[in-house]
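Reply to dn_fold:

You asked what the input looked like. This is it:
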Amino acid sequence: MEGEKAPRLVRVSDDDGKPLCSATADATVDKAIPPEEK
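and this is what came back:
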């Protein structure tokens, strides 16, 4: 399972050009969930 998750995470960071961090998660969460739900 880890082998399948590892490449996925790396791909996401490469696509954004930035490592997976709170900034990337915040952007996704902001669009998916309104600030009030946060």
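The chain is about 70% helix and 0% strand.
Hope that clears it up.
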